[in-house]
Specification:
By secondary structure, the chain is mainly β. The chain has a single domain (3-106), classed as Sandwich (Jelly Rolls). Helix content is 0%, strand content 64%. The chain has no helices and eight strands. It has strands spanning 3-10, 16-20, 25-36, 42-49, 60-67, 72-81, 86-91, 96-106.
């Protein structure tokens, strides 16, 4: 398995898919970085929806987490995902960037 960029997104206030596992593939998400490009603190959410299920409280990995002005955080995770699973992100404003890194394996 080779590590690579799985997805990149300048977030919106609406939850948007930053990565979807391709068919016949398994994925391990190793790191998600969140970058606040604004001069004020913001918040973000990260959501994992197996098989793109309808959103429920159980899907939140992070909920309204604060990130300081002009700061970047790297979340080291190890999330395992199956085909059709989706990773969503959202933020309190359009000033956050998300980058998802990991590896994919054909099954």
């Amino acid at each position: 398995m080779a590590y690579k960029v799985l997805g990149q997104l300048a977030a919106t206030t609406t939850a948007t898919a930053v990565y979807e596992v391709p068919s016949s593939t398994e994925t391990v998400v190793s790191t998600i970085t969140v970058c606040n490009r604004a001069a004020a603190a913001k918040t973000y959410r990260i959501i994992l929806r197996p098989n793109d299920e309808t959103l429920a409280d159980k899907h939140y990995l992070a909920y309204d987490v604060n990130i300081a002005a002009n700061d970047t955080v790297a979340l080291t995770l190890g999330i395992t995902m199956d085909a059709t699973d989706k990773l969503y992100v959202s933020s309190s404003t359009n000033d956050l960037s998300f980058n998802v890194f990991g590896s994919e394996k054909a099954v």
